[in-house]
Amino acid sequence: MNSENITDRKSLHSRIYEVVDQVPAGRVATYGQIAKIVGCGARVVGYALASLPISRPLCWHRVVNARGEISLRSSGDSHSRQRSLLFEEGVRFDLKGRIDLSEFRWQGPGWLWLEQNGYDPGDF
């Protein structure tokens, strides 16, 4: 992989982290929702959050899949931790472990934030 691709990826991850930073406590965003704002695929958002540096504080737990479910990881107990963190913020799960996105979905960043951060509000 050449250095240009590495730089582009880091820039993309930084943009993903900036958008996720906007999701308030008690709300969730989907991987696809973050991806649409940033201009990448939903899986890229997942990869970016999975590679989040420990030194970078970020409320990663506020990002869930399109069904309102916590995406299980192949190892560790981060899914249990994610559920606990969301529950502490007032997000509720149904009996199937799903979040009602009509109630808890974040509506996205405001137009001013989009403009100030180089996004075109007309795209949303």
TrEMBL record:
Reply yes or no: does the keyword Nucleotide-binding apply: no
Annotated InterPro entries: ATL_DNA_repair (IPR052520), MethylDNA_cys_MeTrfase_DNA-bd (IPR014048), MethylDNA_cys_MeTrfase_DNAb (IPR036217), WH-like_DNA-bd_sf (IPR036388)
State one Pfam family annotation: DNA_binding_1
CDD domains attached here?
A: ATase (cd06445)
- Domain named Methylated-DNA-[protein]-cysteine S-methyltransferase DNA binding is located at 13-91
Q: Which UniProt keywords apply?
A: DNA damage
Q: What is this protein called?
A: MGMT family protein
The organism's lineage? Bacteria, Pseudomonadati, Pseudomonadota, Alphaproteobacteria, Sneathiellales
